[in-house]
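sorry to bug you again but im stuck and you know this stuff better than me. theres a chain ive been looking at and ive put its sequence and its fold in token form underneath. id like you to explain what the token line says about the fold, in plain words if possible. anything you notice is useful, everything is just below.
___
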Amino acid sequence: MSLFESLMSDEEGHIDFLETQIELFDRVGAELFAHLNATKMEDAE
């Protein structure tokens, strides 16, 4: 696999993740989405 193909594959993974996050946001709304992605203070790094 060439460098370009490797980079494209990696970027496609990022795009897929972002599209999934946008779809989830649209389905559950801003408040629940924020709650799902929140980390408790004791769990935060």
About this structure: Residues 39 and 45 are 9 Å apart (CA to CA). The mean pLDDT is 89.
